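Recall the central idea of this unit: under ordinary conditions, the amino acid sequence of a chain determines the structure it adopts. In this exercise we apply that idea directly, starting from the sequence alone.
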Amino acid sequence: MSSETHTGRRTGTGAGLADWQAGVIGGLVGGAVMGAMITVMMRPVIVGAIPALYGLAPPPNGLAGWVVHMSHSAVLGVVFAAILSGGLASYGHSVGASTVAGLVYGVVLWAVLAALVMPIWLGAVGFANAPPFPNFALPGSLPAHAVYGLVLGVLYPFLR
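Accordingly, the structure predicted from this sequence is:
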């Protein structure tokens, strides 16, 4: 008679991180790439609008913008991990499926958070340069959000 002990640790070629840890790291790397894009393409967003969400004024405040942006990136990476470890678990195991899921996730984040929530939030805190609601202006921040999702989606299965 033999017995097996399971440690709960996955085997494979990934880094072996817990799902949420992979989400945090993937989110931070994706956030860094996205933040660099926003800094180059839409500097007023990272130095003004993002810190204004939390009343971190007076703008411009690039450091506060980056801290808030990277915090959002980490938290949203964990949300991605929760989605892929829950009902869409099959998408978290292959790089191709996870990449597609990441791209879709980035576009959804843009449509919901950047285009709908952010204009309302900035208006509510009295930010003078709040974008109109809804803010589906193209290209806007869509490419940056798509890249965030792509990087997160590519890294996630390797980190797990």
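Confidence is low (pLDDT under 50) at residues 1-11.
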